[in-house]
Design goal:
The chain has 237 residues and is an alpha+beta fold. It is built from 3 helices and 13 strands, in the order βββββββββββββααα.
Amino acid sequence: MKLPLCIIAMIFGSGSLTHAQGTFSVRLPGENLVKNSSFEHFSHTPDLNLAPWKWTGCLAYVQDYDRIPAAEGERFPMVCGQIYQDIVTLPGQAYQLRFAFGGNDQAQQNPEPLYVLWGTQRVAAIPVRGVSLRSPEWRYLDFQVVADQASTRVGFSSLPQQAFPMVDDVSVVAIPEPGIFTLIGFALISYSFIYLANHRVETNRRRAFRFRSWPESSDSYGACVSAFPAAVAHPNR
């Protein structure tokens, strides 16, 4: 397996460290529950430490001096194993899980997709496509997930067969419940639509009734006499 020169860490072994729909929407406002979300902070103790992220199997880490553009900041990992973080969540609460995906280093073998992990669930399997390491094709993906525990593990994996997908700028933000004023506004809009629809039906019904109530006459000229002034109905007089 060929290793890119720009990687400063390639460590094998253990480190110290619903409904779901992928979209391209923007990040929701609110607190990001993921710490060190753009992987900027690291140390060696003695292995690569991206706390509070933890990793197992394999991790490749791109540094700022490698001059490879990150989605956020200057550093990011390539998930050749599994990387994860436990965050505090509220059971029953819906969250937006969002991250940047840069493709897969085309200089490496690419047999495995990037798996997106939430708790004990695998919420997505994203096919990896080879791209130039010098020019990652960053794009944002997001998923709506629901917590069922007070602590939830969010992570990424390319195991068991391994690949080298790039990830960055991870966020988990609570999806706010609709407020009372939002619900009232929605109810008023719904009532307005129903009222206008009923009003239109009633107006059409009255028009149809007036048309059917027009005086009938066997003499079409007589009907015209009843509808127009005499000077118009009898121009020769």
